[in-house]
């Protein structure tokens, strides 16, 4: 009986041992697979941390990332200082002619202008009855009775015409010759322009002598009639016959106006 119990206990111990071995074998197979897969349970890794490993090599560049979203607008910055003026650029190509604009409004009427008046100069004078004629050569004959002298260019006291308007003038002398022969000169600024002579032969009636000339004058020039010889002074004037000296402007030299040309 005792022997049977001992055998039974031995058998039970053997069965337990076998069960334990099987369990250990199953665990070994399970842990062997985990070791092969580097899957060590944390419960088995209870050692101290290892020494840090060496830095790894640089990896390959990654692919470009996507564009980020636009940021919010910042507050405006302060105004900067004015820069230096740049050099002038080259002239551009001339543009095309634009369209004709609309007519503008009519302007206000201007002030009345001055009327252009053509220059004038004319005179005529005669000897008065009983006038004493000069006897010396070089004296001007004073035609003392004014017939026309609107511009006052002729001086009856001196017998001289003074030019004010430049241009061409015509002068004429009509003389009645009586009691003596007559010779006179038409003078310009002291120079003889033309000479005239009429012989008197004790005729019962007076004779006549006439002459004229065109002269170009500038302002300040003077023209007069002068005795050529003292003994030839037969100018005569009466109620029925006269001796006259006349002159007038033919055309002027003022070319600054069409009226005066």
UniProtKB/TrEMBL annotation:
Cite the record's Gly residues compositional bias ranges.
53-62
C1q domain location is 116-256
What are the entry keywords? Collagen, Extracellular matrix, Secreted, Signal
Looking up InterPro entries in the UniProt record yields:
C1q_dom (IPR001073), Collagen (IPR008160), Collagen/C1q_domain (IPR050392), Tumour_necrosis_fac-like_dom (IPR008983)
- Signal peptide (from-to): 1-32
User: Matching PROSITE patterns, A to Z?
Assistant: C1Q
Q: Where in the cell is it found?
A: Secreted, Extracellular space, Extracellular matrix
In this chain, composition skew of type Basic and acidic residues spans 66-88, 102-111
- Please indicate which superkingdom the organism of origin belongs to: Eukaryota
Q: Which SMART domains match?
A: C1Q
Principal location listed in the UniProt entry: secreted
Q: Does the keyword Transmembrane helix apply?
A: no
- Which GO cellular component term is one of those annotated? collagen trimer
Where is the stretch described as Disordered? Answer: 40-117
Extract the PANTHER family matched here: COMPLEMENT C1Q TUMOR NECROSIS FACTOR-RELATED PROTEIN 5, EMILIN ELASTIN MICROFIBRIL INTERFACE-LOCATED PROTEIN ELASTIN MICROFIBRIL INTERFACER
Identification of the protein by name = C1q and TNF related 5
UniProt source species:
Oryzias melastigma (Marine medaka)
């Amino acid at each position: 009986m005792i022997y049977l119990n001992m055998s039974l206990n031995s058998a039970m111990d053997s069965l337990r041992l076998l069960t334990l071995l099987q369990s250990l074998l199953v665990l070994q197979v399970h842990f062997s697979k985990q070791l092969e897969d580097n899957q060590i349970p944390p419960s088995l890794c209870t050692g101290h941390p290892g020494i840090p490993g060496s830095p790894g090599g640089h990896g390959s560049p990654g692919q470009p990332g996507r564009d980020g979203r636009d940021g919010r607008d910042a507050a405006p910055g302060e105004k900067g200082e004015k820069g230096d003026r740049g050099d002038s650029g080259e002239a551009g190509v001339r543009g095309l002619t634009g369209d004709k604009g609309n007519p503008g409004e009519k302007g206000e009427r201007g002030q009345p202008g001055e009327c252009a008046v053509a220059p004038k100069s004319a005179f005529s004078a005669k000897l008065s009855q009983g006038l004493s004629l000069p006897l010396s050569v070089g004296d001007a004959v004073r035609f003392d009775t004014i017939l026309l002298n609107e511009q006052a260019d002729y001086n009856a006291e001196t017998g001289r015409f003074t030019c004010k308007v430049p241009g061409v003038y015509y002068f004429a002398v009509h003389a009645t010759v009586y009691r003596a022969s007559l010779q006179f000169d038409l003078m310009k600024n002291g120079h003889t322009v033309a000479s005239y002579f009429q012989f008197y032969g004790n005729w019962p009636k007076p004779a006549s002598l006439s002459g004229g000339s065109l002269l170009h004058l500038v302002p300040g020039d003077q023209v007069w009639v002068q005795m050529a010889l003292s003994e030839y002074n037969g100018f005569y004037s009466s109620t029925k016959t006269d001796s006259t000296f006349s002159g007038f402007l033919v055309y002027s030299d003022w070319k600054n106006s069409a009226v005066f040309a």
